[in-house]
Amino acid sequence: MKTTVEATPIKSEQDVKPGFNWNILSPYGFLLPFLIIFSVFGVFPLLFSIFLSFHQWNPVEGLVAMKFVGGENYYIALTDPWLWRSLKNTFWLALTSGIAQHLVAIPVAYILVSQGDRLRHWLTSAYFLPYITSTVVRIIDFLQYVLAKLRDYQPVLNGTG
After folding, report:
1. Contact, 53 vs 68, CB < 8 A?
2. What is the rounded CA–CA span in Å between residue 28 and residue 32?
3. Strands (DSSP E) found in 15-72
4. Which pTM was predicted?
5. Helix (H, G, I), strand (E, B), or coil: what is residue 67?
6. Which long-range contacts (C-beta less than 8 Å, at least 24 apart) are formed by 10-14?
7. Helix axes 81-115 and 117-152, enclosed angle (nearest 10)
8. What is the mean pLDDT of each run of 10 residues along the chain (161 residues)?
9. How far from 15 is each of 6, 11, 12, 18, CA to CA, in Å?
10. Where are the alpha helices (DSSP H) in the chain?
């Protein structure tokens, strides 16, 4: 039994249609809104903050009032005892609360997994119930407000007012 394989001819430059190929750029077009928003609200503030850290500036006076001070702001911050005290307190808070949370969370997670689906689903529902309830209450309040406003305009909407 013989197997034959047909080779597909390679397209020459004459076979390729001239013009712009949108298939290459279309994914970037879909990414463009995200990239613009991320650049404006994420990248620019970060870079401008780094730029500002090397300047002394009163924002009320405008951008022309900036005075380059180099690393002086960092020197002031690193020699301030309040900075080191706050860093020590933050580290201590993170360490103690993290250990306490894990000492409770890991055994609870083990119990939930080992108890089976019925108890796990019930406890998951009980955990998320406050979040769902508050959202539903906000929606009901909003709808009551909107419907009350529509009742005020009902004669106008009916054409009798």
Report:
1. no
2. 6
3. 55-56, 67-68
4. 0.52
5. strand
6. none
7. 110
8. 68 63 86 96 97 93 91 95 97 96 91 82 88 92 86 72 57
9. 20, 6, 5, 9
10. 22-38, 44-52, 72-78, 81-115, 117-152, 154-158
